[in-house]
Design goal:
The complex is a heterodimer of chains A (about 210) and B (about 260).
Chain A (H helix, E strand, L loop, with lengths): L38 H22 L3 E3 H4 L6 E2 L4 E2 L2 H13 L3 E3 L9 H9 L2 E4 L4 H14 L6 E3 H6 L13 H13 L3 E6 L2 E6 L1
Antiparallel strand pairs in A: 1-5, 2-3, 4-5, 6-8, 7-8
Chain B lengths: L8 H45 L1 H6 L1 H13 L19 H6 L2 H24 L2 E3 H11 L9 H10 L7 E5 L2 E5 L7 H13 L1 E2 L1 H8 L3 H13 L4 E3 L7 E3 L2 H7 L7
Antiparallel strand pairs in B: 1-3, 2-3, 4-6, 5-6
Helix pairs in contact in B: 5-6, 5-7, 9-10
Classes of the chains: A alpha+beta (about 210), B mainly alpha (about 260).
C-alpha cells in the first residue's frame, strides 16, 4: 500500500445518514454466536459482543433495546450465516456491560435502589445502552449550556431534545429517560435544578 | 619411493621434512586467511556501500528489504544478530552498523507491536495467530504514513523475540503461525489445526473420517484445543457441533488478503 501522509480520512461512523452498519469480522464467525465454554475465550467473546453492541447502538443512535425484540434484529441474528445469539446469552452480555457501566436494565417503577438492580437484571426486558455514559451526556449538556450562554436560564426538557437550538448537538433527539439520568447527575453536582411536573419538566442551569 | 635412507639419519630427515611441511602449510593457511580477510573486508565495504546507497529503499520497500535480508543470510551474514554474543564484540548488529540503527530499530519496533497484538488477541486465539493475520493487524496499528510490512519482516521480528522464549514461528500444514505461548502443539493437535485450515472448522465426524481416529481421540484433541483457546465451538449447526479456528474471524471480513 502506498504511504499516505495526508490527513486521515474522516470516519463515517455516527453519521446516522448512512443506514448500513459495518459489522465487524466476528459477526461473520459462526462460533461467535455460541456461548464459549473456555473461560478466557468467553471473556474475549463478551468483550467483543459488548463492543459490537455499543458500536451498533451508536451508529443507529439506539438508547434502549428490548431484549425480546432485539433478539430478532440483525444485531443478534445474522441471517446470512443463520446464526443467532440466544436471549439468555444476550442477557449475559448485557449484564457484562452493566458491570462495566455500559448498560442498565430498566427497573420497574418504585424499585430504585442499587440492591434491586441485580434482581431487575435477571428479569427486565428493556435495557439502556450507554455508548455514552450518563456522566458523558451530562458533560455534553453542560458544555452546550455553557457555550450558548444559557446559564441561569430555564430550558424545558423538550427544548433540549427536540428544540431548534440543540439541532446538531449530540443529544438532540435522545432518549428522555437517559437525558433525565444525565440531568440528575448535574442536579447532584449542584449544576442544575429540575422542576415542573411529569410532562412539562424544566431545567435551570447554574 | 626408493629404499634409500635406511640409516639413522633418516629419522632426522623425516622430522625435518614434516616440520617443513607444517611450516609451509601454516604459511599457506595464513595467506589464505589473509586473502579471505581482505575479500571479506572488501565485501563488507561493498555491502556497506550498497546498504547506504539503498538505505532508503531497504527501509521503505518491504520486498527489497526481504531480498536484501535474504542475500545477507545466503552469504552467512545474519543482519539481525547482535554481535555481542559472537566474537567480534562491538555490540551492534550488522543492520545497525550499516544503516545507522534504523533498520535494526525497525525490527525491534515491529517486534514490540507484535508482542502487543499477540497479547491483545491471546484471549481469543489461545496464543496462536496466523502470520499474515498478525501482519495485517500490526500494519493496521501503525498509520502515520508508516512503511508497509511484509510477512518476511514479521518473521524476522519474531526471530528477535527468541530470547523471550515463548515466541516462535511455527508452520502447521501450509500455514505459518506465530505462537506466543510456551506451549508446543502435539502431533495430534497440529493435525487438527491443519485440518481446520481447509474449511475453517473441524468436527468429530470430520476428523474420524479423514484422519481415521476413533471418536474418543477426536474428542480429546478437540477438548485440548478448546481448553487452550485455539478453537471456538459452534452449537447452532444442523448436525454435530463444529469447532472453528479463530483465525477465520480475521479472514472472513476482508477480501484481498495478500497471501504469500
Amino acid at each position: 500500500m502506498a504511504t499516505t501522509t495526508t490527513s486521515p480520512p474522516p470516519q463515517p461512523q455516527s453519521s446516522s445518514s448512512s443506514p448500513s452498519f459495518p459489522f465487524p469480522r466476528e459477526y461473520f464467525f459462526p462460533a461467535f454466536f455460541t456461548r464459549q465454554t473456555n473461560i478466557t475465550i468467553h471473556h474475549a467473546q463478551l468483550t467483543k459482543w459488548s463492543a459490537l453492541i455499543l458500536a451498533y447502538a451508536r451508529h443507529h443512535r439506539l438508547f434502549r433495546i428490548t431484549i425480546s425484540a432485539a433478539a430478532e434484529s440483525d444485531l443478534f441474528f445474522n441471517r446470512g450465516i443463520d446464526r443467532r445469539l440466544s436471549p439468555p446469552d444476550i442477557r449475559e452480555v448485557l449484564d457484562f456491560m452493566r458491570k462495566d457501566g455500559r448498560a442498565e436494565f430498566l427497573r420497574p417503577d418504585g424499585a430504585a435502589d442499587a440492591a434491586s438492580a441485580a434482581a431487575a437484571a435477571a428479569g427486565g426486558d428493556v435495557v439502556f445502552l450507554y455508548w455514552r455514559k450518563p456522566e458523558e451526556w451530562a458533560a455534553l449538556v453542560e458544555a452546550f449550556v455553557e457555550e450558548t450562554a444559557q446559564k441561569g436560564s430555564v430550558l424545558t426538557v423538550y427544548e433540549l431534545t427536540e428544540g431548534e437550538n440543540t439541532r446538531g448537538t449530540e443529544f438532540h433527539g435522545m432518549d428522555n429517560q437517559v437525558l433525565m439520568k444525565a440531568l440528575n447527575i448535574l442536579v447532584k453536582r449542584g449544576k442544575a435544578q429540575i422542576f415542573g411536573s411529569e410532562d412539562s419538566l424544566g431545567v435551570k442551569f447554574f | 619411493m626408493s629404499r634409500k635412507g635406511v640409516g639413522i639419519a633418516a629419522f632426522d630427515r623425516s622430522r625435518i621434512t614434516s616440520r617443513q611441511f607444517a611450516s609451509h602449510g601454516s604459511s599457506l593457511r595464513a595467506t589464505n586467511a589473509q586473502a579471505l580477510e581482505t575479500q571479506l573486508a572488501v565485501f563488507r565495504s561493498l555491502l556497506q556501500q550498497f546498504a547506504q546507497t539503498h538505505a532508503k529503499d531497504i527501509r521503505s520497500d518491504p520486498s527489497f528489504r526481504a531480498q536484501f535480508a535474504r542475500m545477507c543470510s545466503a552469504i552467512g551474514v545474519d543482519p539481525l544478530a547482535s554481535s555481542n554474543n559472537h566474537s567480534s564484540g562491538s555490540g551492534t548488529s550488522v543492520w545497525a552498523q550499516l544503516l545507522g540503527k534504523t533498520v535494526n530499530d525497525f525490527y525491534f519496533e515491529l517486534a514490540v507491536r507484535i508482542v502487543e497484538v499477540c497479547g491483545a488477541t491471546r484471549a481469543e486465539n489461545g496464543g496462536l495467530i496466523g502470520l499474515s493475520e498478525l501482519r495485517e493487524r500490526v500494519s493496521k496499528g501503525r498509520m502515520e504514513g508508516a512503511d508497509s510490512i511484509s510477512d518476511d519482516d514479521v518473521r524476522r521480528a519474531v526471530e528477535t523475540l527468541k530470547p523471550l522464549g515463548s515466541y516462535a514461528v511455527v508452520t502447521v500444514g501450509r500455514k505459518e503461525y506465530v505462537r506466543s505461548v510456551p506451549r508446543e502443539l502435539s502431533t495430534d493437535q497440529a493435525a487438527v489445526v491443519e485440518a481446520a485450515q481447509v474449511l475453517g472448522y473441524v468436527s468429530v465426524g470430520m476428523l474420524r473420517d479423514n484422519l481415521g481416529w476413533d471418536e474418543a481421540r477426536c474428542k480429546t484433541v478437540i477438548d485440548d484445543l478448546m481448553a487452550g483457546g485455539m478453537l471456538w465451538v459452534d452449537k447452532q449447526t444442523k448436525g454435530e457441533w463444529e469447532y472453528w479456528s479463530p483465525g477465520v474471524m480475521a479472514d472472513a471480513g476482508t477480501d484481498g488478503e495478500a497471501g504469500v
